[in-house]
Amino acid sequence: MAPDRIDEKVVENQIKDVIQDLYQVMVQVTAYDLTSRPSKDVLENSTIQLQHSLQKIHNTANSPTAQATMPSVPPELIQYVDTGRNPDIYTREFVERTRKMNQTMKGKFGAFSDFRDVLATEMARAMPELIEDIGLVVERTHGDKEKVMRNVR
């Protein structure tokens, strides 16, 4: 593994530590006794340990190597999951939206290509002295120069 990449096991273990510390705080709060001095000290130590665990994972997540290697999760996906919905459904909807947008763009490209060819043909008929320039423009816009020129004659 590359030395500048964060090991996923390290992050996983840090998250497990945070969960364990949260559990310890929950246990201490549940068993807290106002009259007992040891309960206060144990709860205080558990809270401090939780703080250290959170600080450790925060430092790991904000390190320069983490910024470069950690995958970016779209905020929309996080909101989707926060509302209790299935991320697989989000992915499926995203793929369908992307497919529809691609089809729309393909249709627009086709329409503009047809428009380019018709415009070039009509311009070449109206201004035969510009036929070479028109052919050059059609060629540079990835059109079929020969097809346009055949329609002019």
TrEMBL record:
Main location group: nucleus
Family: Belongs to the Mediator complex subunit 10 family.
Keywords: Activator, Nucleus, Transcription, Transcription regulation
Subcellular location: Nucleus
Coiled coil: none
Gene Ontology biological process terms in this record: regulation of transcription by RNA polymerase II
InterPro entries: Mediator_Med10
GO molecular function per UniProt: transcription coregulator activity
Its job: Component of the Mediator complex, a coactivator involved in the regulated transcription of nearly all RNA polymerase II-dependent genes. Mediator functions as a bridge to convey information from gene-specific regulatory proteins to the basal RNA polymerase II transcription machinery. Mediator is recruited to promoters by direct interactions with regulatory proteins and serves as a scaffold for the assembly of a functional preinitiation complex with RNA polymerase II and the general transcription factors.
Keyword Glycoprotein: no
Annotated Gene Ontology cellular component terms: mediator complex
Pfam families from the UniProt entry: Med10
Gene from which this protein is expressed: MED10
Protein name, entry field: Mediator of RNA polymerase II transcription subunit 10
Subunit field text: Component of the Mediator complex.
